[in-house]
TrEMBL record:
Classification via Pfam families: Glyoxalase
InterPro entries: Glyas_Bleomycin-R_OHBP_Dase (IPR029068), Glyas_Fos-R_dOase_dom (IPR004360), VOC_core (IPR037523)
Top-level taxon of origin: Bacteria
Protein name according to UniProt: VOC domain-containing protein
Domain VOC per the UniProt entry, residue ranges: 2-116
Species per Swiss-Prot/TrEMBL record: Saccharothrix espanaensis (strain ATCC 51144 / DSM 44229 / JCM 9112 / NBRC 15066 / NRRL 15764)
């Protein structure tokens, strides 16, 4: 298992203003705008920022780790449970095409562990 990308999450109460800031000021490009605002670096597509609308995620993860393969998500989920870590969002396939779960690390940080299904 290896992490293929780490995705930062930012807070956004005004998604159009956030989109304008990240695209016009920092030069990111919009990769998705349905459900959440996803922005990527044109020079390095694995460098990403996700801005969910307020209240979209409960609990809210601090960042995401893309493991690249749904089987790796299953393996990480099993490993987390075997170690007694707290899974705060159950493993599932989401309608927008990712398999994921949220786990709390030993310091209390909530991480979205995911992989795209296709």
């Amino acid at each position: 298992m290896s992490v293929t990308r780490i995705v930062a999450y930012a807070r956004g109460t005004d998604l159009p203003a956030s989109q304008a800031f990240y695209t016009e000021v920092l030069g990111l490009e919009v990769a998705m705008s349905d459900h959440v605002l996803g922005l990527v670096s044109p020079a390095n597509p694995s460098a990403q920022v996700i801005i969910p609308p307020p209240g979209t995620e409960d609990p809210e993860p601090s960042f995401g780790l893309d493991l690249g393969d749904p089987a790796a998500v299953d393996a990480a989920h099993t490993a987390a449970l075997e170690r007694g870590l707290r899974v705060v969002y159950p493993i599932r396939d989401e309608p927008w095409g990712v398999r994921r779960f949220f786990v709390e690390d030993p310091g209390g940080t909530i991480i979205n562990v995911l992989a795209h299904l296709s």
